[in-house]
Design brief:
Layout: H1 15-20, E1 24-31, H2 36-48, E2 51-57, H3 66-72, H4 75-78, E3 81-84, H5 87-96, E4 99-104, E5 111-112, E6 123-128, H6 137-140, E7 145-148, H7 160-174
Parallel strand pairs: 1-2, 1-6, 2-3, 4-6, 4-7, 5-7
Helix pairs in contact: 2-3, 2-7
Length: 179
């Protein structure tokens, strides 16, 4: 008979062990994401898939904050993060570290994520934009590749934290995450 596992049966690591655990070569940049719940949810997803760090830019709220913590459930303590006011400074810094910059955005040059080949030998930085306006216009010319998630319904976008979960998982499974 199938039963749900209790928390103690899941074998989760503690924050100290998480900090020492090798991460996947993936950084997530949040560009003017306004919702604290979305920020918290991205932290929680980043924790689940061993993301290297999160870069918070522009008006994106920063921990510690009660509303971020509600969705993050402690992931703000485990996942490394920095704040950079200017998105282009964040992008330029990651380019200097040989990260491939990927904008998650519907553009005239975007390709479906299902058609993009993720190379496990490369490092990637994924940019998720504002809930209404998407990625900042001033950052567009500084981004090498744009990906979008195929959508078949009547809506033209996903919630940023849902989009982040889909895209982070797609990269994590191709960058060698193992349980």
């Amino acid at each position: 008979m199938t039963k749900k596992l209790k928390l103690e049966e899941l074998g989760r690591i503690d924050v100290e062990t998480f900090k020492k655990t090798p991460k996947i070569s993936l950084v997530v940049i949040l560009d003017n994401v306004r919702s604290m719940h979305n920020v918290g949810a991205i932290f929680r997803t980043a924790d689940a898939f061993l993301v290297e760090k999160i870069v918070l830019c522009g008006i994106t709220p920063q921990p510690p904050h009660r509303e971020i913590h509600k969705a993050a459930l402690g992931a703000t303590e485990s996942v490394d993060w920095i704040y950079e006011q200017d998105i282009n400074v964040a992008i330029d810094n990651l380019k200097k570290e040989n990260f491939n910059i990927i904008g998650i955005e519907q553009t005239s040059s975007s390709q479906l994520i299902t058609d993009f080949e993720i190379n496990s030998e490369k490092k990637y930085a994924l940019i998720l934009g504002n809930e209404v306006d998407g990625i900042s216009d001033e950052a567009l010319e500084n981004i090498e590749t744009f990906l979008e998630i195929p959508q078949l319904g009547t809506k033209h976008s996903l919630n940023v934290s849902v989009c982040g979960g889909v895209v982070i998982w797609e990269f994590a499974k191709n960058l060698g995450i193992k349980k």
